[in-house]
Amino acid sequence: MRKLSICTDLLSLLGTPLSLEFILNNSGSSGRRIDYAAVRRYFQAAGSDTAATASYMAHAQNLPENSVHYRLGKEITTIADWLDAVPQTGRVLDLGCGAGAWTKIFANRYDSVIGFEQSASMVEAARTHLAPFPAAEIVEGDVRKDIPDGPFDLIFLGGLCMYLDDADAVDMLRSLIARLAPGASIVLRESTVPQGKLMPEGEYQVVYRNVNLYQDLIREAGFPTADLRRNYAYTNMEVAVELVEARRKYLRFLPDQSDFLGALTWYALRALTPLSFWLLPRALSRFQINWPHLQNHFFRLTPSEKT
């Protein structure tokens, strides 16, 4: 109980948005389902002017665009060998492409890439962003029914399954198998929680699953195994996000929305690297204190030859 007391005291100090009930037992979601209309409204409301930071969830905390570039660069490094395995002549599908950050990466590496997105504001931003890249095409549609035909040498999902119910995620992943070229794979990048499943209340509709639950969905969809890598670049950004939330909770005399304070938080953390972005999260993990609360993982899915 002493360890629990220390944990909850620290989480309170850090301004956690998660309740003690979730910390103790977050194994279920009480039968709730994702409100897909709310998901569409959320990203549509981001607007094309903030689409780039909204794609990486930086806009709500007023984090600078530099934080997006920093995280993206380190994410590319994390899965560089997976990307190198795709031939330059390959055809790539970027599902849930947002404002096209990864679509641009693929357009620089491969001969053909389709970015697929349902939010009209994100589609507009992606088309503007990718206009100088003839290898890229941006398509608007719903991943539950409108996915383009293959074959593709790589299918990338940059945080898409977290906006889908379990059954829809499985159906969507299963439908991608027929769209893969021989020897091709699917890469997921999904936000995770250490235990169970979390579906926060409110307008932001999302489901955070732990790694084991994702592995279960992946197997159910027809993939026998998945390569797994922790996305520490996400952890770095999440440290900044949770510090901004702590400031809003405990320093209420400061403005809630402030690009200056968001940038100050980010660049202060950068200045304190590796203490802030490496040592602190790992040290807390040694004491079984999960902070920041959200994690992120890459999964590489390859269907069996019999599929």
Q: What is the strand and helix layout of this fold?
A:
Blueprint: H1 2-13, H2 20-24, H3 36-46, H4 51-55, H5 65-78, H6 80-84, E1 91-95, H7 101-109, E2 112-117, H8 120-129, E3 136-140, E4 152-158, H9 166-177, E5 180-192, E6 197-198, E7 208-209, H10 211-220, E8 226-230, H11 232-250, H12 259-271, H13 275-286, E9 295-301
Parallel strand pairs: 1-2, 1-4, 2-3, 4-5
Antiparallel strand pairs: 5-9, 6-7, 8-9
Helix pairs in contact: 5-11, 11-12
**Structural category:** alpha/beta
Give helix % range. Answer: 40-55%
Query: Could you give the count of β-strands?
Result: 9
Q: How far apart, in Å, are the first and last alpha carbons? A: 48 Å
Would you identify the CATH H-level superfamily of the domain at 36-231 and 295-301?
A: Vaccinia Virus protein VP39
Radius of gyration: 19 Å
CATH fold name of the domain at 36-231 and 295-301:
Rossmann fold
Give the strand content: 15-25%
